[in-house]
Records
---
Amino acid sequence: MASTIGRAAHLICAAVVSFAVLALLGLGHGPVPALGKALVPGGGVWQSASASTTVRTETLTLPELKGPVTVSFTAEGYASVEAGSDDDLFVAQGYVTARMRFTQLDLQRRMGAGRLSELVGAVALDSDKFQLRLGLLRTAEARWAATPRDSAAARALTGYAEGVNSWRRHLEKTGEWPTLYGLTGVRPQPWTPVDSLVVQGVVTQQMNFNTVALDYSLLRKSLGPELTTAWFPEFAPTEQRPYDPGPYKKLPPTPRTVRNANAADPAKTPEAAPAKSGAATSTRALGAAASRERVPEEDVLPETVRQLDFNSNAWVANGPRVAGGGAMLAGDPHLSTTLPSYWFEISLTSPGYQTSGGSLPGLPGVLIGKNRNISWSLTNAQTVGTLFYKEKLSPDRPDSYYWKGAWRPIEKVRYSIPVRGGSDVPLTVDRTVHGPMMTLLGQRVAVDWMGNFPHNDLESLLAANRATDYTSFRQALRGWKAPALNFVYADEKGHIGTFLVGDVPQTPKGSQPWYPLSGTGDEDVVGTIPYEALPQSYDPPGHLIASTNQRPVTKDYPYYVGTSVDFDPGYRQSVIERFHTERGALTSEDYVTLQNDVTDDLAVELKPTLLTALDGMRLTGREREARDLLASWNHSMDTDSPAASVWWTFLDAYLRGVFQPYWDEKKVPASEDPWILDLERSPIPLREMLQYWTLEDPDNPAFTPPGGTPRTAPEVMRTAFRAAVKQLSGDLGADLDAWTWGRLHTREIPSLIGAPGLQYGPYGDGGSPWTVNAAGGNLSSSYGPSLRVIVRWPRAGAPEAMAIYPGGQSETPIADWYDNLVELWRDKKYLPMGPPQSARETTATWSLRAGE
């Protein structure tokens, strides 16, 4: 009943949105031209509305196939492909994905390639300029050029593109384009292997590109070097929980053998000719030109183009920790939640593949899942992946930079960005040996980003899909370079493991890569951490490995991997470890409980100290009630918990009470980058420092505001508690029973195209950034577990595998499978992961045949 009401609501909202946009586009307004034929009944958007929204059994002909392929669907939309050859398998995967997610595919490649403005107009220019400067398209082209055409990756990419284009030709023939193209009149170009690599680059960017070094630079300018180092240290003072405690190998860095696809070629950068006296351009004019070069337009950082949150969980257990023995895996990568989702659930069966799990629309294979022998999930490694170089420039040489003892010409790459409803916009990208020049957070830098190197990561992933044991799985991923990830593993023989893969750049001893580096050549990357020295753990004696974005190694690790800004403080790690210890041997159902757990371990640590600080304080009646709520609270951020609201509001007031005076006095530019600089997001190192000082150093000078009367941790806690009760009383009323966390904290799953009414929610929900079932850093969250997977390998018998994600397999709002999985995800229910085991589990079948 609920799903029927939901589909009706989406139909109504889609109609309202469509009519509003139709009125705008049909008449034209400002820069938006009238679309004419796109609105003709029987064609354009009207015909797209007549396309089928329900998957039915049918027989289809695909000229690209060499043999028959069967595609089956469960009642919930999970797809399974069975092909007689690997080539046909990926043709079918591309076709199925395109039929269900065609708009998503096109929007993802447009975003990465800097072509969104061509579809949606000038509103996307900032995004297009950013992407063209950073160079995802240039990298994808270089990757494809370097991919051997007889490799598994090339064959998979080519087959996938053929499958996408088979569906595109159908749309072109019938005119049943998705609504967005009917409204705009823009027609998507054929899909290519480069497009898939652009999509891969977008995902890499969202997981691995960040501006940490630039934020450190802003903090040093405002807070000063002493406070920046003390409050944002390389190593947090709190207890850390690395999955690889050592001992470690010390090996020379692995030299880079592949050049940054977006850097100027050092072999082609001879010394630039000096300016001659009597030249046509005067020195004064050169100086003016150089000034313009040094301060070009600021590159806007849209939230879609960089890593903003990084909560992910994956853990494995074996032996006595698993009921009945064997091994068990759980994984839930935390990403932005959207409709449609990042994920498309699929099973792939052919002579070379028997793989099931979450695929990324646009890419062949499965990123998280299982095959007949092994299972795997992943978390973001959080290691340094973005370096920034401050090039030495001169007013006398406006188009040159100084590197390794000589002036080199800045390489220019020029683009013309098509804009729907307007004129093309020219763009010039400057490149040095370190990468593209960009102006970010007010700083002119060259960007050396690991995602811009043309490695063949897809070849590694496909080999991992075919792996049969830990050795072959780890060997397969040797070639994976970006983003750096922790792969978490369990297999049919009861083995478990975790290891980090990806390039982690190393700079010369004495350099500080957490700040922008010198571009003169003295601080250039000397190589990456050797694969043999990267963190790993295999069948540990404790029979448990958990990866939760924490620092994977101790201070003794001989390589630089990042600062306290980069790594999670370990609150989720503590909950996972304690759960295993307290409950003994666990089942799949226990892992369902743990993946949905909303225990706040920071509250476990700090609540006793807070209650002690409140003892003896003269409390009002309402403050006493709030204190008693906390005293009896189980530290769980449940939707219906008033104590959770008290805790969250107190902690926010506590952190602001300590640091806001410094932010105000030192004029920290919080608006430049809220991710690290804005106290509203509670930057990770500050939470850890506050925890440490509260428990170990309550008289720390940080508790005393600049120029103020000395204070201690208990004094600031009491003030913060009183402020929290006052705020909650004003916001939620006098009745403490009504202060439920769900009234403050909501989740929403927005539409990918941002259309109002096509999202799911918002709705009151539990969790926080520090709980296993995580949410984003704001009270209104559209971030969290984007896919949940659990795989159990018993000592005997078939494995148990299940998965769920908050979305649906179809991108069409009025389709049965648009958001049908969200309620299951909310209700802690999972679906079997893998091909249907009987005809009863199949609701529709496509019989794909070769032919014209």
---
Amino acid sequence: MPAHTSTHLTPLAKALMMRHALRSKLSLSGLGMMMAMGMAAHVQAQEWTLKIPAQPLDQALQRFAEQVNIQVLYSPSDVQQLRSTALNGRYDLDRSISTLLQGTGIQYQLSGNTLTLQPASSGKALELGATNVKGTQLAATTEGTGSYTTGSSNTATGLNLSLKETPQSVSVVTQQMIKDRHYESLDQALNHTPGILVKQDTGDTRWEYWARGSVINTIQYDGLTSPIQTFTRDVTADDDLVIYDRVEVVRGATGLMTGAGNPSASVNLIRKHSTAQPQASLSTSVSSWGNIRSTFDGSTPLNDAGTVRGRTVISGFTGKNQRNSSESDNGLLYGVLDMDLSSSTTASVGFTYQVQNNDGYSWTGLPTRRDGSFYDFDQGSFVGSDWFYLDRRQTTLYADIEHRFDNDWKLKAAARGIKAESDYVSGSGYLIGSNYFREDYDVDYEDESHSFNLDLSGPFNALGRTHELMLGVSSGRDHIWTGGGFVPDTFVGNVETYNYRSIPKPDLNQNLYTRGFTVQQHGLFAATRLNLADSLKLILGSRVSWYENKSFTLNDFGYTPANYSVKGEVVPYVGLVYDFNDTYSAYASYTEIFNPQSAVDRQGRLLDPVEGTNAELGIKASFAEERLNLSTAVFETKRTNLAVSLPSISCNAGIQSCYEAAQEVRTRGVEFEVNGEIQPGWNVQAGYTWSQSEYIEGDNKGQAYGTESSPKHLAKVGTTYRLPGIWQALTVGSSVRAQSKTFYKGSDYYIEQPTFAVVDAMARYTFNDRVSLQLNVNNLFDREYYQTITTTYHSGNFIGPGRNALLTLDYNFW
């Protein structure tokens, strides 16, 4: 009877029985262990094809457990700083375990589907003591997991927490999502990320990301913060996702880790690193627009011990986009070297070099009639000239080093530097009646950006419980220089009938100007996670910032400087998480907002910083060893001094755009998200957001804030399913993104984009472990819509891409 009932126990129940047996030091010859061995014999008789590269042992154990579906019990301190041996081939259970643990000094014992680990040098019987039940939990890295979620994230607080433990809304674009939906750029990925609105600001390459009614004005690379200024996207290269493992998005105010910024979201791109096990792949894609892209991604150990490892990614693109007038030739080279300097110290250095050459570049959008109605343009329409172009070059250097102390504390330093330059010739237009005029530009840019971060983190004991602490310092500087000339008020003809491309190139060495922007930010930050009770955790944090913003404009009207600085600005953070049980938790978080801005008043003086508060309440749930996560949240943001655009006629001479500070504005909203694996082979990411911003003080009290709206309703659903049985080589999927109407309200006109939805679809056939073929069809039903309506009625409107198909062949060399 005991043997019969034990076969129906859950893995956790079996693990607890195993712990009791081990603590009682039962002999393997005992009856209970004999029954367990009988169960183990059945499991060991199976064989698996395993491909698990050499890596930190705790990560290897997690991947091993999920592939062979067993429970793994061990003390985290026993495997810290140890590395596994690679598995690459077909193994039975016993041989796979012994190979994985080879050279680690770890002994193991198998009972049923429970594997127990203990250092062989301890001289003790196998006892668990403080045990972690790892099972099929995920690590932070998403490459190779096939998952639509991650095991941990530190983007919100600097502490490594699961999504369920983080007291804010978190979305993750994993490596599997990037592959399934064939994301090539950050713009594409965020366009499908719950709660994020993607707009074309001006130009083919100048994008804006919005969340909770605010533009995202900082971005992180491996946790290092970089500001997004007005011209950043004109000079720096597009973020190509081929070099990133994942993108983490934390919605709401994130001043604790990013410093100054809007209460919108933090976007953190985490790079791929080299692997100890050799791997190499080649991916080639062709599209219905007539472009082709090829990418090689290879990684290998560089010495016999595997302590030095390297990875190289080479990617090239040539072809067109939705406009026939546009052609691009782009190239990327990425290299990273990862080194184990000792058993407790690792270091990494890397670089990226990108070149982008875009002919037919459009800095301007499409015009609309003064009454707000749209002209009969299509996705390929272009109001530019054949001599328009944008060329960009960027070099980025990375370096980091981490040391792990014996008491589970670790110290990490990281740095990133970029040097970018670009030049473009393009123009922006405006209407007088039905006649179209254009202002053509020849502009050069240079951008130098440096960022550094140092943090120390680890556990500490107090009042009989173990808590966590993180201390850090950061520093960053971003300088953009731009200059050029322009020719204003060129009459080009009737907006609907004139051939814009036939306009000859004018002498653009006129009306010369120079602009410079320098932002420096330094900060001290700290966060602690206090274990108040088994089910209650309190996160306290604070950041002290030193901020300086300097800018100038030099033109025919003279030299106009605009400077702002602040010292010792304090931003607090509070989060509380209560676990109802192992599945459900509730949380609350609060932080303050501090965001210096580049907007100037009528006299050219910088407006005071935006200040305010951000509060969030939510409930989260986690299933299947945190492979499936659900969350729902309500949030409220209050801000003062938001910039409101003024008519250009009210600005002083030499100032193109001026603003005034708004009275207090409140944004309220609700979010829901689900991401992960519903059942084996079925992945999903879905989200819904409702938000609204309105004045709560002043003459406009009760009115909607702003002349440019974000959609009140934003819904995104994406799923893939690997068919069972004889069809298991085939994976199919689809996604839908829908949003309610958006509008732009000018002084004497109104433009509206009605509610729309766009459907994408994909299918992938895996021939074997090496070869797969994938088809992606975007905008399946060829829905016509405007991706962005913004700025003024004459130049700020961008049509979303029409139906297009992409066929991709992937080949793994081994």
